């Protein structure tokens, strides 16, 4: 029989997986990988734990740089990072955010599926403000302009500057009754990028009869990639679980009834 | 680099010889060797671990077919030796032809959350709760909470880690299956809802 080979220590495994092991350490870990019955799975498990620490911001600067260097060309590691991120989000105990998920995500999902009647839901605005800021270190800018004024039948223009790395814009509104009204993207299409500087979004939205007078919450979602409506809803669902992948900005309008004389 | 470049394709006899050789020792036979090789080359940072893995197994098979008798009783030790040699060859070749790594996808370009939730839903309730509880804490609480969880289950922390690793593997397989339009987690026929 052969000489028994020890399992690598945690420190050896970390150094190896981050590409920072000495030649001798690397040789030893590789021998264990091929000869110890448990070493392979143990190394894989430790790699996932590194992914977990990476996501939690717990790696030292040098470790993070080494990890990011590996992440670039390693689809399997990218998959591990995605899985750990999703698991952390699924496991995170955030009742307040879950209620928010219900407030925004459920109507969004229903709207994506063609649902019409939506319940009136409480709207803790201060929590959404927190969420808006959490979505990105720099959430971008959104200003609303009603043309010519904020009333039914008018047009709504957006003046936007996306946050760095999240140029694609989606927009929708929710009225006082919880009804969702989509502006961007069009059904079946993906959101498109906005110009990097503060500029008017090329399309203004008609405040048509899908709207009703009263308060209107307008949401603008910036993402790294073009998203369909369904994907926007999913991304917001993740945001609300504490793993922001989009920057969500909320603005409020008060819509007046159509002024006299206007058709 | 395409798979099996630089090696003659395996014939039936070569493949049989390779399979028999890998069955002689522990390590899961052919599939065990292949999985280890894939990770070995991945952790060595090569551009195409699958191609390197195929070349290694082809080379081992060719050597065996040529009558080479490995001096070690442990087949995987022999495979590791060949893999190191193939890596050296590859490093020289890649130095001549610079291979640019693929662009890192945006970490938020994900879309797997829904699939994960569905896959979690297919786990037995106890297992699902365990997986969620294990991944709940972060920072300094994580180790403490996991130790406590291991104590409650009456297992060591390392056993718990491995159990969670296997659970994540199943979830990853299930998510992959779902994104490909099928699920691997539950072998039973789909339930109608």
Ranges of chain B with pLDDT <50 over ≥5 residues?
A: 1-6, 98-109, 182-193
Q: Report the helical percentage of chain B.
A: 55-70%
Task: Detail the poorly predicted runs of chain A.
Answer: 94-103, 112-137, 239-243
Protein chains sharing the most extensive interface: A-B, 59 and 53 residues
Query: What characterizes the major β-sheet of chain A?
Result: 5 strands, antiparallel
Q: Determine the mean pLDDT of chain A.
A: 76
**Broad shape of chain B:** elongated
Euclidean distance between termini CA atoms of chain A: 93 Å
* Number of H- or I-type helical stretches of chain B: 8
Q: For this entry, what is the oligomeric state of its chains?
A: heterodimer
> Any idea what the radius of gyration of chain A is?
24 Å
Distance between the termini of chain B: 47 Å
What's the SSE blueprint?
The complex is a heterodimer of chains A (263) and B (193).
Chain A: H1 10-17, H2 23-35, H3 39-55, H4 61-72, H5 75-91, H6 95-112, H7 125-134, E1 141-147, E2 155-161, E3 168-175, E4 180-184, E5 192-193, E6 199-200, E7 205-206, E8 214-223, H8 229-240, E9 247-255
Antiparallel strand pairs in A: 1-2, 2-6, 2-7, 3-4, 3-5, 3-8, 8-9
Helix pairs in contact in A: 1-3, 3-5, 6-8
Chain B: H1 12-23, H2 29-43, H3 49-65, H4 75-96, H5 113-122, H6 125-134, H7 140-153, H8 157-179
Task: Note down, in words, how this protein is organized.
The complex is a heterodimer of chains A (263) and B (193). Chain A has 263 residues and is α+β, with helices and mostly antiparallel strands. In chain A, 41% of the residues lie in helices and 20% in strands. In chain A, strands 3, 4, 5, 8 and 9 form a five-stranded antiparallel beta sheet that branches. In chain A, strand 3 (168-175) and strand 4 form a beta hairpin. Chain A is elongated and about 85 Å long. The model of chain A is unreliable at 94-103, 112-137 and 239-243 (pLDDT under 50). By secondary structure, chain B is an all-alpha fold. Chain B has eight helices and no strands.
